[in-house]
């Protein structure tokens, strides 16, 4: 029951080469405003914070008290202000928290605030 190729029906699709894009589209706005290395360093710090909070509270993620450690807020404070703010946020933690606080303060040294424009 083989049919000859000329008698088989074919379906053909035509593609339109016309694309509806604005002529002056801006690309890469995020990488222009923020330095990729700064973003990666901040992400690494946030992942480190998450892991350390699991160790400090010794529980599953759902059981960790609602904490918001705002890196930008810490960067606006003096060294002593940063330390006291972290102690205030971690007051519910029963374990010693000095190693966590010292580690975080060490890691955020040299970071720049993300909410404002960078000055190089």
Proportion of helical residues: 40-55%
Name the overall outline: elongated
Cα Rg: 27 Å
Overall number of strands: 0
Keywords:
120 residues, mainly alpha, 5 helices
Explained architecture:
By secondary structure, the protein is mostly helical. The chain has a domain at 36-109. The protein has helices at 29-33, 36-57, 71-76, 79-89, 98-108. It is elongated and about 85 Å long. The mean pLDDT is 77. Residues 1-16 have a biased composition (Polar residues). This is Protein phosphatase 1 regulatory subunit 14B.
Structure at a glance:
The chain is mainly alpha-helical and 120 residues long. The protein has helices spanning 29-33, 36-57, 71-76, 79-89, 98-108. Helix 2 (36-57) packs antiparallel against helix 5.
SSE order and pairing:
Elements: H1 29-33, H2 36-57, H3 71-76, H4 79-89, H5 98-108
Helix pairs in contact: 2-5
């Amino acid at each position: 029951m083989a049919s000859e190729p000329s008698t088989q029906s074919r379906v053909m699709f035509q593609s339109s080469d016309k694309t509806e894009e604005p002529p002056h589209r801006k690309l890469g706005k995020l990488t222009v405003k923020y330095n990729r290395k700064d973003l990666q360093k901040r992400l690494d710090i946030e992942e480190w914070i998450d892991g350390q909070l699991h160790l400090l509270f010794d529980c599953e993620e759902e059981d960790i008290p609602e904490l918001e450690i705002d890196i930008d807020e810490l960067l606006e404070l003096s060294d002593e202000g940063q330390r006291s703010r972290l102690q205030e946020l971690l007051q519910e933690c029963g374990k010693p928290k000095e190693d966590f606080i010292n580690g975080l303060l060490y890691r955020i040294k040299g970071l720049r605030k993300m909410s404002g424009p960078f000055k190089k």
